[in-house]
Design goal:
One of its GO terms (cellular component) is nucleus. The chain is of the alpha+beta class and about 300 residues long. The chain has eight helices and 16 strands. The protein has helices at about 25-35, 120-130, 140-150, 160, 165-175, 180-190, 255-270, 290-300; strands spanning about 5-10, 15-20, 45, 50-55, 70-75, 95-100, 110, 195-200, 205-210, 215-225, 230-235, 245, 250, 280, 290, 305-310.
Length: about 300
């Protein structure tokens, strides 16, 4: 059976791995453990997009769907459970949130934290980079912050900027089914006093909100056309397990370079949704729409905003 070449990312660096397709996952874990210096009993292997942990080890590399060119990520299983038992990390676990620590001299390992796709992913992602944990209630407060900011400056936030009247927008953004975007990110960047850099996986570009304000810290989000996730760091100078970093000095461009590499990788592997071609279904009336423009027009005509990808 033929071999495949994959890439391993871990706190110790990035390594190529050549393994046969019939290699057992348990054997792969032993190889990864040796390279990453993470004990087999404490290792967690993530693969796919978005990255998800392997749930069991009784299959082969081929069974897991790995192919040449794929990337796997090795992390410390911070839940304290053994991956051999098929247990996954408790998503509600509170992490020690590092904000002032420098990236250090080691190779940055920038990772994606997948948040629920519940129309509030932007706000949940920002809540994670600000507080170090997933809080599904953070969107309520942020929506109110945005509505108050828009309402207090009606000259700037005009119909032309918002695409609707100021009053209608304030009502719309308070709706938990309304999606956030560039306007909302810009307001929250100003409110929290941080630069927010959004990686667009379709274009490979990074939009920097608050770049002109000389804020001391920046945070990173990744956007695939319909969904936001936060990015965080585990690097060789950070303790494994419960310690992460989500805010970085704006005068240190190493994380920016790592984020740009991630954007280029995501673009080249087409890890995005084409908003001009994807299909949505309105959960209020059942209408089927193609592309963002049709969805926006449907929302204007009907006031329906509860959509799912179809």
């Amino acid at each position: 059976m033929s071999d495949i070449v994959i890439r391993l990312k871990c706190r110790a660096g990035t390594f190529p791995l050549t393994v046969p397709l019939n290699c057992a996952i348990s054997d792969l874990i032993e190889q990864v453990s040796a390279l990453s210096a993470i004990p087999v009993s404490s290792i967690k292997i993530l693969l796919g997009f978005p990255p998800k942990p392997i749930q069991k080890c009784d299959g082969t590399v081929e069974d897991a769907g790995l192919k040449s060119g794929d990337t796997i990520i090795a992390e410390v299983n911070s839940s304290g459970t053994d991956i051999q038992q098929g247990k996954v990390e408790n998503e509600n676990k509170v992490l020690k949130h590092i904000t002032e620590q420098e990236v250090g001299d080691g190779l940055p390992l920038i990772l994606r934290k997948v948040v629920p796709a519940d129309n509030s992913c932007l706000f949940t992602s920002l809540g994670f980079v600000l507080g170090g944990k997933i809080d599904l209630t953070s969107g309520n407060y942020m929506r109110e912050v945005i509505a108050n900011a828009v309402n207090s400056d009606q000259a700037y936030f005009s119909d032309a900027v918002l695409g609707k009247s100021n009053a209608d927008y304030c009502e719309w953004i308070r709706n938990p089914n309304s999606w956030g975007g560039a306007i909302e990110v810009s307001i929250l960047s100003n409110f929290y006093g941080i630069e927010i850099d959004v990686i667009d996986t379709q274009s490979g570009s990074i939009s920097k909100f608050g770049e002109d304000k000389s804020y001391p810290h920046r945070a990173f989000l990744i956007y695939d056309g319909i969904h936001y996730d936060p990015l965080y760091l585990e690097s060789s100078n950070l303790l494994p397990g419960d310690v992460i970093q989500t805010l970085y000095p704006t005068n240190d461009d190493r994380m920016l370079e790592a984020a740009q590499m991630l954007a280029n990788e995501a673009k080249s592997s087409r890890q995005y949704t084409d908003v001009n071609r994807f299909t949505l279904k309105c959960l209020d009336c059942g209408c089927i729409m193609i592309g963002q423009s049709q969805a926006q027009e449907h929302a204007k005509l009907t006031a329906h905003t509860n959509f799912n990808e179809y």
